[in-house]
Amino acid sequence: MDAVFSVPEPRNEPVRNYEPGSADRERLQHRLTELAADRLDLSMTIAGEQRMAGGEAIDVVQPHRHAHVLGVTHNATNSDAQAAVTAAKQAAPMWRALPFEERAAIFLRAADLLAGPWRDTLNAATMLGQSKTVIQAEIDSACELIDFLRFNVHFARALLEEQPISSPGVWNRFDHRPLEGFVYAITPFNFTAIAANLPAAPALLGNTVVWKPAPTQQFSAHFTMRLFEAAGLPPGVINMVTGHGVEVSEVVLADRDLAGIHFTGSTKVFQYLWRTVGENIERYRGYPRLVGETGGKDFVVAHPSADVDALHTALIRGAYEYQGQKCSAASRAYVPRSLWEAGLRDRLAATAESLTYGDVTDFANFGGAVIDSRAFARHTAALEMIKSDDSCRIVAGGTADDSVGWFVRPTLFECTDAAHESFTTEYFGPILGVHVFADDRFDEVVAQAESVAPYALTGSLFATDRRVIDSVSATLRYAAGNYYINDKPTGAVVGQQPFGGARASGTNDKAGSWHNLVRWMSPRTIKETFVPATDHRYPHMD
Ligand SMILES: NC(=O)c1ccc[n+]([C@@H]2O[C@H](COP(=O)([O-])OP(=O)(O)OC[C@H]3O[C@@H](n4cnc5c(N)ncnc54)[C@H](O)[C@@H]3O)[C@@H](O)[C@H]2O)c1
Ligand SMILES: N[C@@H](CCC=O)C(=O)O
Predict the structure, then answer these.
(1) Cβ–ligand 1 contact at 333 (below 6 Å)
(2) Could you tell me if 196 and 229 are in contact, meaning their C-beta atoms sit under 8 angstroms apart?
(3) Which residue's alpha carbon is at the smallest distance from atom 17 of ligand 1?
(4) Which of 224, 240, 303, 379 is the most exposed place for a label (fewest CB within 10 A)?
(5) How far apart are CA 497 and CA 316, in angstroms?
(6) Which residue CA neighbors atom 1 of ligand 2 most closely?
(7) H or E element, residue 107
(8) Is 219 close to ligand 1, i.e. is its CB under 6 Å away?
(9) What is the spatial distance between Cα 317 and Cα 351, in angstroms, rounded to a whole number?
(10) For 178-212, what is the HEC assignment?
């Protein structure tokens, strides 16, 4: 077709409420029951074929009811990884030859399928497999993923329009090529939307992908792959391998055609990937693009002028929604003594104690369980360390119970030592430390908070004094890639608050924005001269 297409204008997908008695709630409950009754084979998908990986079996369970197995997956072996790499390379010429509009249509169709008939499936799978409440699943596996798919098309279309200027007699053009080779997408357990976006964004731009989801997210990843297929994604474009990834990386990171890594997860794993790519650098055809969004130690700083009601809600939601398992979760707060002792401490403690964590299929619960036994052990160790340290004092929670599910109570503790390891280490659970300071030490506390942790992902300032907002925002300019004024540090919306952090938190390539998409293109500059020179001499030579 000869046309310069425009693409549909994206709008953020409205969040549904699932109130008691609503049709949305009834349908979702039905799907929850259906999915919980199954025990799926959670296979790989390579060149469009589903087959079980060759390594040891891994049970995928409900974290809030760990005896309930949702499905079984297997660790991918070296030869499974090799098959996925081969499939990605074989599909590349077909996929990159397809016009952008055809590729975009597949992802726009996936968005519409997810907004409609697939919504309950992805939400139910995310609730059961990752222990998200209905609202946490809805903002992730429905709205954020729909937004990623639609906004990526919009931003990619704008990037394709970027063209150089031309002088008389010459036509200069950019050919926005996909990368030469394949992309390795490695994704975390905690967001179904991130897991889907990491392979989808490079694929939209014409790259083929080897995708390795987290085993603890494999249940919703399985349905995500089916969604892409239902939308018309050709075989081999996204090849999903299962398991822990160690053997997959042995093959993928050594492959000459590795063109990029799209990673979200812990800082430690990203540093391993970066280091290994560095060690292998002479093997590759080019320089692999390394995009990684990683851990955080996200802060809330309160000024004495802060609105206490807003601060209270932001701390509770920011720290305890999804059991503190958002990379953006508030895990350290700095609160002036005047606010703390005038009632904020008691109020926060009472609210934290009142939060119910339980089976997420009971819609009355505020939260579920932490993801697995490894996370549970990390949190219980942190709680023991905090309890045994004289500079810290538990104000609420502090207990955990893994008899039915991996439950860690919402925990609030005070710590007099603002450099304590609990203010620098990411635990990734519902554990919030508060450093209470004399009001006249505010500037000193902000300066210390700015760089005490190695991360720079999200952070919030609560203040009503405009001069304070101005000066603190300047001091904290590099302390967070997503910085909030009078709001919680979680809940970024695609297109509105492009997400990502710097320092140890990642490469800050802002998922769901053109900043990220541009990493998956390798422009070729074309100069065409209409009437080329026919004499090699210059006028000054006459
Ligand atoms: N900055 C962000 O946008 C963002 C978003 C979500 C999560 N996170 C971070 O992710 C972490 C939690 O997620 P997680 O527990 O899934 O992280 P993780 O680092 O343990 O795992 C991430 C992925 O890497 C895989 N992996 C581990 N070793 C590997 C290897 N050698 N080769 C290939 N793959 C390998 C895992 O199986 C998983 O798929 C937290 O640190 C959190 O802050 C960051
Ligand atoms: N984008 C999400 C966090 C993603 C990481 O887990 C938020 O803003 O809360």
Answers:
(1) no
(2) no
(3) 265
(4) 303
(5) 21
(6) 492
(7) helix 100-115
(8) no
(9) 11
(10) ECCCEEEEECCCCCHHHHHHHHHHHHHCCCEEEEE
Other CB atoms within 10 A of residue 136 CB: 25
Query: Could you confirm whether 34 is annotated as catalytic?
Result: no
Q: Is the CB of 426 under 6 A from ligand 1?
A: yes
Reported pTM = 0.98
Closest by CA position to 344, among listed 425, 417, 418, 432: 432
**At residue 429, what are phi and psi to the nearest 5 degrees?**
-150, -175
* DSSP state, residue 144: I
- What is the four-CA torsion angle of 446, 452, 410, 317, rounded to 10 degrees? 50
* Cβ contact 436:344 at 8 Å: no
The model's pLDDT over 337-365, given as tens digits with 9 standing for 90+, comes to 999 999 999 999 999 999 999 999 999 99
CB distance 189 to ligand 2 below 6 Å: no
| Distance of alpha carbon 523 from alpha carbon 159, whole angstroms | 11
* Cβ atoms within 10 Å of 197's Cβ, excluding its own: 27
Catalytic residue among 13, 138, 247, 293: 293
CB of 187 closer than 6 angstroms to any ligand 1 atom: yes
Tell the residue number behind the tokens 């002792």, with chain if given. 341
DSSP notation for 73-85? EE---HHHHHHHH
Examine the pLDDT at 1 and tell me if it is beyond 90: no
240 DSSP β-pair partners: 45, 211
Q: Residue 489 CA: which ligand is closest?
A: 2
If you measure from the C-alpha of residue 413 to the centroid of ligand 1, how many angstroms do you get, rounded to a whole number? 27
Structure-token pair, residue 12: 């953020």
Strand ordering across the sheet containing 289-293: 49-51, 44-46, 238-240, 208-212, 182-186, 258-264, 289-293
Torsion of CA 356, 359, 362, 368, to 10 degrees: 50
Q: From ligand 1's centre to the CA of 282, what distance in Å?
A: 26
pLDDT digits over 93-130, tens only? 999 999 999 999 999 999 999 999 999 999 999 999 99
Q: What is the DSSP string of 466-482?
A: HHHHHHHHHHTTTT-SE
**DSSP label at residue 265:** S
Alpha carbon of 196 to ligand 2 centroid (Å): 14
* Cα gap 512→315, rounded to integer Å: 26
Distances (CA, A) of 229 to 47, 223, 358: 11, 10, 34
